[in-house]
Design a protein that fits this description.
This protein has eleven helices and five strands. It is an alpha/beta fold. It has one domain: Rossmann fold, CATH 3.40.50. The chain is globular and about 55 Å long.
Length: 236
């Protein structure tokens, strides 16, 4: 498997809420993790790798639910939040909708921001201690004249910036996959095209090579933060 060391793995510190999730796991408690987003999550090999990571690190402790849906945007996210997220009473939610929010100018960035804020607010109302992590996904390209996923998302970076800014304002950990994919597209176009043959959806190999390392880095940083806090402080 290719190892891409490009861009930042994740932005911001590990939040107290995410540290709390891992502290509960360290104590032997059960936790529920919900993924919410688009086809890039429901069909993403990185999501399967994330479940496998939890299964290995904390056997039988994590209820892992992938509630994403192909073709969904944040309007869908708001509409289906009760049944696809809140019904599971999650302790940790990892969410992405910016890729499909950008399709065909159907949503404005302002509308998408309000949707994101509404989802976050309702998740926090149910569980004030919930850990929420946002992420951007890959950049698309146009493999055929009649199949234009990238052209259909002319303001993708504006919608991605919504997530970056919201994460900064809320002090959420943030996984920014987009720059890693963009750099691969610019520096190794043949490999990039092979990793996203249909212009939108990474192959299993591509997902594991580019998206999963950033997600994994956040998980391991959160687990390490619990271990470091449990170590006795050195005397001066």
């Amino acid at each position: 498997m290719m190892n891409l060391m490009v861009g930042a793995s994740f932005a911001g510190d590990v939040s107290p809420q995410l540290t709390g999730v891992f502290q509960h796991l360290q104590n032997g408690d059960k936790q529920t993790v919900v993924l919410y987003g688009t086809s890039l999550t429901i069909g993403g090999e990185w999501a399967k790798a994330m479940k496998a990571w939890f299964d290995e690190a904390y056997p039988n402790q994590v209820t892992f639910v992938n509630s994403a849906k192909g073709g969904a945007n944040s309007d869908f996210g708001v509409k289906k939040l009760d049944e696809r997220v809140l019904a599971y009473r999650p302790d940790f939610v990892l969410m992405e909708f910016s890729y499909n929010d950008a399709v065909d100018n159907l949503l404005t960035p302002e509308h998408a921001w309000k949707n994101l804020d509404q989802m976050v607010t309702r998740i926090r109302e149910q569980n004030p201690s919930v850990a929420i992590v946002l992420q951007t996904m890959n950049v698309g390209w146009d493999p055929l004249p009649d199949h234009l996923p990238f052209s259909r998302r002319p303001k993708l970076e504006v919608f991605n910036e919504n997530y970056r800014r919201y994460a900064r304002e809320q002090a959420f950990p943030f996984i920014d996959n987009y720059p890693n994919w963009l750099r691969l597209k610019q520096e190794e176009p043949e490999k990039y095209h092979a990793f996203i043959p249909d212009g939108t959806h990474p192959t299993a190999e591509g997902s594991l090579a580019v998206t999963w390392p950033a997600v994994k880095a956040l998980l391991e940083a959160a687990r390490a933060s619990v271990h470091s806090e449990s170590q006795p402080k050195s005397l001066l």
